[in-house]
């Protein structure tokens, strides 16, 4: 079954508590939290303080995605804030194995994110160490972008790598996911759909989540 992870980045932060309570009452599986530093990506979002607040309200796993430089420096801080999964970018981690080991030692699921221009083959030597691969299907840094079509081929390539090695690694798709393209993404091999604007900008977010779950 495909997992649905609404992205809080698209929520109305003036109504943050009610947005979190909506997620609680929905069929969503995870809550996705995008942390941006204005250096690795050209935007700044929120940090551990907001995640700590959200974690107190939300009854779903907190899927934290660090779009920041030197993410390993902050693993303990995000664990303390309530992260259940911590995803870091391969492009930001020259000591990737060390960072993954640290995340797992803290009791979190370890994810690795891959930007649109980065081949999935770069994960070959580390794939057996991680729990989640976040395939960016837009350029990271801003919500509301359109899905990059060649991501479908990357999903297929990554799925083949995982199956050939008999690994238990989830493929997470991040960016431009809609009701219209979700089936094609799932058919390519995705396990987790991150949906920001599609959910939070909808007139009936709970219904949208149910539709995504039903695909």
From TrEMBL:
Q: Where are the transmembrane segments?
A: none
In short, the EC number is 5.1.3.1
Which residues hold a divalent metal cation?
32, 34, 65, 174
Enzyme class, UniProt record, top EC level: isomerase
The record ties this protein, via PROSITE patterns, to: RIBUL_P_3_EPIMER_1, RIBUL_P_3_EPIMER_2
Keywords, A to Z, come to: Carbohydrate metabolism, Isomerase, Metal-binding
What this protein catalyses is: D-ribulose 5-phosphate = D-xylulose 5-phosphate
Question: Where is the catalytic site?
Answer: 34 (proton acceptor), 174 (proton donor)
Cofactor(s) named in the record: Mn(2+); Fe(2+); Co(2+); Zn(2+)
Q: How is the cofactor bound?
A: Binds 1 divalent metal cation per subunit.
Q: Binding of substrate: at which residues?
A: 7, 65, 141-144, 174-176, 196-197
Q: Recorded GO terms, molecular function? A: D-ribulose-phosphate 3-epimerase activity
Give the Pfam families listed for this entry: Ribul_P_3_epim
Q: In which pathway does it act?
A: Carbohydrate degradation
Give the protein family.
Belongs to the ribulose-phosphate 3-epimerase family.
Database matches in NCBIfam families: PRK05581.1-4, rpe
Functionally, this protein is described as follows:
Catalyzes the reversible epimerization of D-ribulose 5-phosphate to D-xylulose 5-phosphate.
Q: What is this protein called?
A: Ribulose-phosphate 3-epimerase
């Amino acid at each position: 079954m495909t997992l649905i992870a609404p992205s809080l980045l698209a929520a109305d932060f003036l109504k943050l508590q009610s947005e979190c309570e909506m997620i609680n009452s929905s069929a969503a599986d995870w809550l996705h939290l995008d942390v941006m530093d204005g250096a690795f990506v050209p935007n700044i979002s929120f940090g551990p303080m907001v995640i700590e607040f959200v974690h107190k309200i939300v009854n779903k796993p907190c899927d934290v995605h660090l779009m920041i430089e030197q993410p390993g420096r902050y693993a303990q801080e995000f664990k303390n804030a309530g992260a259940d999964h911590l995803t870091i970018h391969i492009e930001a981690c020259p000591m990737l194995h060390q960072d993954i080991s640290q995340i797992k030692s803290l009791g979190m699921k370890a994810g690795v994110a891959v930007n649109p221009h980065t081949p999935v083959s770069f994960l070959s030597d580390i794939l057996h160490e991680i729990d989640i691969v976040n395939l960016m299907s837009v350029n990271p840094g801003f919500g509301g972008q359109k899905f990059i079509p060649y991501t479908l081929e990357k999903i297929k390539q990554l799925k083949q790598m995982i199956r050939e090695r008999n690994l238990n690694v989830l493929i997470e798709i991040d960016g431009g996911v809609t009701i219209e393209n979700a089936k094609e993404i799932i058919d390519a091999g995705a396990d987790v759909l991150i949906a920001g604007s599609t959910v939070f900008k909808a007139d009936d977010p709970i219904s949208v989540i149910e539709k995504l779950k039903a695909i």
